[in-house]
Design brief:
There is one protein chain. The protein has about 170 residues and is mainly alpha-helical. Strands 1-3-2 form a 3-stranded antiparallel sheet, with no helix packed on it. Strand 2 and strand 3 form a beta hairpin. Helix 2 packs antiparallel against helix 5, helix 3 packs antiparallel against helix 6 and helix 5 runs antiparallel to helix 6. The longest helix has about 30 residues. The relative contact order is 0.20.
């Protein structure tokens, strides 16, 4: 099967999701204002996508779940460390919004995350027997959890330092 065949048989919703993710990653390159809740969009999106993938592809088998939780734990630690040296969130004066500094990390992890999930799902479509392979379902879970964990670790790092410094949160 050629790459063109694989790409042309990819459902439209996958390309729409990819475009949305790239737009989010591109926006993350520049400083921007947002509500604090917007920090959690990408981690939640990747978590929902990951859980949905485990359900659809492996019906939540034990290997995929253990893999996902293991990957999530590793990813959170790695994401926390990677975002440790990134600029901190700032409160926008006279507003309930925050200012988030630009970083290429978000775009890089979006591309890596989407690419890895896409490759795993293509492999499954080309090799349907992999749905029943414990090793593959564990690998799928680990990669899914690792990717999402990177986003959670970075987000939680930024959020926790903001929460410690924010007078809005301390007085609430």
């Amino acid at each position: 099967m050629t790459i063109f065949t694989i790409l042309s048989h990819t459902p439209l919703w996958v390309w729409i999701l990819f475009a949305f993710l790239i737009m989010r990653g591109y926006a993350a390159l520049s400083e921007r204002e947002m509500n604090i809740s917007q920090l959690f969009i990408l981690p939640l999106l990747f978590l929902i996508w990951g859980v949905w993938g485990l359900k659809e592809e492996f019906n939540f088998n034990v290997a995929s779940l253990v893999g996902m939780f293991s990957g999530l734990a590793l990813g959170i630690v790695a994401g926390w460390r990677l975002w440790k040296n990134q600029p901190r969130l700032k409160n926008k004066p006279h507003s309930d919004r925050i200012i988030r500094a630009g970083t290429p990390l978000t775009l890089v992890f979006i591309i890596m995350g989407f690419g890895s999930k896409y490759c795993l799902l293509v492999w499954l479509s080309l090799h349907p027997e992999a749905h029943y392979a414990v090793q593959f379902s564990a690998l799928f879970g680990v990669i899914t959890g690792l990717v999402d964990g990177l986003f959670w670790g970075g987000t939680l790092n930024l959020f926790s330092s903001w929460r410690k410094m924010s007078p809005h949160v301390r007085s609430a």
